[in-house]
Amino acid sequence: MRVPRYWRNKLFRYRLVGWRCVNCGAFHHSKPLVCKRCGSREFREVELPKTGKLLAYTVVKIAPKEFKDKTPYLIGLVELDDGTKILGQLTDFSREELREGARVEAVLRKIREDGENGIIEYGYKFRPLVG
Amino acid sequence: MVEAALKALDDSGLSRVNSIYVGNMAGEFLQEQAHLGAIVAEDLGMVGTPAYRVEAANASGAAAIHAGALEIASGKADAVLVVGGEKLSDGLIEEVSSALLMGERQDYEGFMGADFYSINALLYKLYMKRYGVKDDLIAVFPMLSHKHAKGVAHAQYPFEVSLEKILSSPYISEPLRRFEVSGVGDGAAAIVLIGEELKSKIKAPKTELYISSATDFMTPFEREDPLRFQSLSVAVNKVLDEARVDRGDMDLIEVHDATSIMAAISLESSGFAEPGESGRLAMRGEFDLGGRLPYNTFGGLKARGNPFGATGVYQVAELHLQLTGRAGKNQVDSPMIGMAQSLGGVGGTAIVTLLKAV
Q1: Are A36 and A66 members of one domain?
Q2: Are B172 and A61 within 8 A, CB to CB?
Q3: Which domain holds residue B51?
Q4: Cα(A51)–Cα(A65) distance, rounded to whole angstroms?
Q5: CATH at residue B220
Q6: Residues A56, A19 share a domain
Q7: Is-above-0.95 flag for pTM?
Q8: Quick one: average pLDDT of B190-217?
């Protein structure tokens, strides 16, 4: 992968920064020109809350080739504290902590490496929120 | 693809068509081969004939039918050949998984490794929680597809699989099990579409085709209700309207059971079962070959097979065989109207075909 392809999504991947439609409130993780929900063209940049709760999770056993050597890994559907629902990998979970409804927080982690000589890609993952 | 195309052409009695539409999803990725339209034309000895590939993820075959049907409807063509094909066995299992992921957003799901099966697994969990059902009421759908594929010559898995066996197969992405998802396979299917002009000249058994399509938000969790394929609901309503028939008139249905949970959500989204009820109806035998609404009469994606670009064309070819009384031991009792539903991704695209006996 060339660096620009990865770099252009870094705001969302590093800090959960995206764009919210001024008219209907729909969240977009890539910079939009037109709102996918209402067609409006006005947005404001927002940083999503870093905490939320786990709505559902799954353990990936057969993965796409980019993640083949990472299996098994966890994918979760998270509802952030402002109500935005996003997908993310889960990390640092013990068996006991892994349950629907668990409080989680976003942390920056390594997502994957693009081969031996390619770039190392980082992004958010969700870990259990303690306390 | 050539073999399937020749079968369809020979059945129709035509040797030339105005256009060829090829349904294929992953040729560039698995065979590093694009430009399949011209290649199929050449291999069919039809150099000169306009030919394109049409792509809409797993619904590529149905999209090719849609494109062909629109050309007929426009009056520009009298005869169109539609052929769908895919050779997934050229890829390693993780490459096929990557190919499937190409039907989702690479900059979102792809980046984090949230593949097709994991999205399905999350829907599966939400479904069980909302409706208070266990996995047996979802895993009943692959059992049914296998039951109907038994002894089918063109099926990939022409044998029965018990519910116990499905529910004891290993997880591919918990709670989705290996025997609840379609396998990796190769295949091709073809149909010939004709317009009014040729109708009286063609002696082969014919059916009347209606087709509609719609799209939805790519990620199910951004939809108003993740457990409803709105694209499918819209496309079904449009095609029923156009054909002037009701759901109750349907004699059989081909559902896009790429996974067990997609089959359940499809039947419910398109109004053939109340939300959360499809599994119970299946358990009661309503979708058996002799039931109220026979389902996936040659085994569906699960057991007949799901070679992406071929799948949507298989569905319509099978409906055609049923409605022309040529379905052999799988023949449904004198059907007049049938529906085939094809989905791209997890419902980002829905294409619905309705055939009427003539």
Answers
A1: no
A2: yes
A3: 2-357
A4: 30
A5: 3.40.47.10
A6: no
A7: yes
A8: 96
Sign of the Cα pseudo-torsion (B228, B114, B312, B257, in order): negative
* Per-residue confidence (pLDDT) for residue B234, from 0 to 100: 98
Does residue A53 sit in the same domain as residue A111? yes
Q: What is the CATH number of the domain that holds A69?
A: 2.40.50
Q: Which residue of B has its CA nearest to A57?
A: B122
Sign of CA dihedral B111, B59, B32, B70: negative
Query: Which 8-state DSSP code applies to residue B110?
Result: I
Residue A118: HSE in the Cβ half-sphere, 13 Å Cα cutoff: 14
User: Measured between alpha carbons, how far is A16 from B207 in angstroms, rounded to an integer?
Assistant: 53
Token duo for residue B193 = 């579409």
Residue of B nearest to A111 (CA): B112
- Give me the percent of chain B exceeding a pLDDT of 70: 100
Q: What is the pLDDT of residues B93-152, one digit of tens each?
A: 889 999 999 999 999 999 999 999 999 999 999 999 999 999 999 999 999 999 999 999
Is some CB atom of chain A closer than 8 A to the CB atom of B111?
yes
Quick one: A125 and A86 in the same domain?
yes
Q: Is the minimum CB–CB distance between A36 and chain B shorter than 8 Å?
A: yes
Local confidence band at A4 (pLDDT 50, 70, 90 cut-offs)? confident
> Do residues A58 and A93 both lie within one domain?
yes
Q: Which domain holds residue A94?
A: 49-131
Is residue B341 within 8 A of residue B254, CB to CB? The reply is: yes
Distance CA B118, CA B256 (A): 18
- Between CA B350 and CA B341 the distance in angstroms is 7
Q: Are residues A29 and A65 in the same domain?
A: no
- Residue B69 makes CB contacts below 8 A (sequence gap 6+) with B80, B193, B209, B211
Q: How many domains does chain A have?
A: 2
Please compute the mean of the pLDDT values over residues B333-346 and round it to a whole number: 98
Q: Give the count of domains, chain B.
A: 1
Q: Is B159 on the interface with A (CB under 8 A)?
A: no
Q: Are residues A36 and A21 in the same domain?
A: yes
Name all contacts of B35-39 with Cβ < 8 Å and 24+ positions apart: none
